[in-house]
Amino acid sequence: MRDLFVTGVIFGLLPFVFKRPWVGVLLWSWIGYMNPHRLAYGFAYDFPFAMVVGLVTIVAFMASKEKKVMPWTRETIVLLVFIGWMLFTTFFAFYPDLAWFQWNKVWKIQLMVFLTALIITDRKQLHWLIWVIALSFGFYGVKGGIFTIINGGAYRVQGPAGTFIGGNNEMALALVMAIPLIRYLHLQETRKLIKIGLAGAMVLTGVAAIGSQSRGGLVAMVAMGFFLWLKSRNKIVTGIYMAIAVFIMASVMPQQWYDRMNTINTYQSDESAQGRINAWHMAFNVAKERITGGGFNMFLPPTFRQYAPDPTNVHDVHSIYFEQIGEQGFIGFGLFMLLGLLAWMRAQQVIKRCKKDPANKWAADLAGMIQVSLVGYAAGGAFLGMSYFDLPYHLMIILVLAAKFSGVLVKRVSPANLAVGSGPHPSSLFARENAGQRL
After folding, report:
1. Burial tier of 301 (Cβ tally within 10 Å: 0-12, 13-18, 19+)
2. 261 in the same domain as 130
3. Same-domain check for residues 14 and 146
4. Using one digit for the tens of pLDDT, what is the confidence trace for 194-228?
């Protein structure tokens, strides 16, 4: 029954994609983040819904009469260079078959990320996209939060198998990143019942993230929660929501959860932690020797035997930073970090320009919450290998679109140039940038 339902919904929406390609971006995001087909048990489980929706979206967009303009900003340019570098390193990968298999997934994700920048053309469409992303993860957050409370935290919250968020660690990080997006929707919402529902979803999603029993998730949750409070408009209300979530967690989580979290302070004697540190040393050694790194999926026993301090302690890297260092070399790592820095700077620019503008206050709210989400990713990612996860790249593009729709991506005309005969006509304070101009 689930198979028929999921298939019916997806194929039932495809005709709308032909008329409105932006619906295809929403549908692809729902499939990519929630993975509804992975909740089925029959033919839909392995059906390539994302590929079908992606192809239909591309065809519909190319056939449409909409103006096709890519916002070439510093973020999109660096992201394109980063993608090109990952392709280059794949030619020199330690394990070509595994590397090309991973590249096949990565380039498709990045293609849809760029299509988002091309196809989403106004604030309304962007708002719907955020709703889809927030609800996709919010589904697991609400479900996982209730599951944690009912079972007293005895079992781990995990995602659908075979996806980016399949494990408890990965699910925790995704939920932490989703909470600020739900908070953004909460800030924009005027309908009382929906606002209450979003508040409840935030609390339950926080409980679910802790219920994953992920130590990296706890680190991400603390960092994200602190910045969420700092960036929040109403710190008292945000503090109340956080206090409720903490109270629920303290009431339901069992002693074994506290024992597991306490191992963060005793990592020297923790086998898992030592395995990660060994993998980090190995990644650094590979990058020192090879400018292209080891390529995708290089963390395998032969690599450890050659580059690790302890050749017998084979462990997954569990870090977005050392994953990039090992697989893409220092150049790839530098581009990865530069993307994060540019996104943060863009968010600051949007906040500065829009926070006192009633018409564009939404953009300042969104930029602030994306910063909070990226803080959670940066903190939790130190202990989780999710450097190719769709969401952070999607959030960077959403930031660019928020800047575009709020008028931040326009050139300010200097007051000196408003003098007669020295510049544009005084009737306009801003001159819109050329569609292809770079910022």
Report:
1. exposed
2. yes
3. no
4. 999 999 999 999 999 988 888 888 888 888 888 88
